[in-house]
Amino acid sequence: MGPKHFLLPCFLSLMMMMMMMISLSLGIKHETLYNICSQTQNEETCVKILETDSRTDSSTLPQLSLISINLTRNQAIQNLKKFVQLSQSQNPTADIHDGLLLKGSYEDCVIIYKLILKKIEVAYALSKKGKYKEIIQLGQSQDLAYRCENGIPPNWNNYSTAGISEDMILTCEASASVNLYVANNYVPKAYYENVQNMND
């Protein structure tokens, strides 16, 4: 194969990479959000969650990763405060036995959400380092949110908690989908530079 035949595929490959890089720098397209959310329980809800942050539409994929994790953190903080409040209050409609069960389950949720927040901080740190393939903590957080809600006695599992638990579960799922998409589709700038250097 002559030099010209060797250089042409390299040049075309480099041009395709540069076009992709320029596209990514222009921000996230709406259809990209739907592509990201296509594997979630509710595609529309996932997109709405991500768009609650005004920076989403103008973000790059790495920025969207951080935004999604931050949304998950905010929801976890909100839920933790709610479960702390519930664990410290008495439910006037519950008898003594049910009251003790509720109090214990709410206290368990407080412990669970503190663990969730620790996992989210790990995910955020990995995202900042660009280690997207190592971000598994969001799926783990979703499982923990399910554990919290399922641990509330059946007669009371819809009392004040079902809405925020669902919000947490869906936000974890949206964020996990974002970071899986970033892990599979984002090519760091350093990679383009290395390819260019190889072709010089």
Automatic annotation (TrEMBL):
Protein species of origin: Catharanthus roseus
Protein's recorded name: Uncharacterized protein
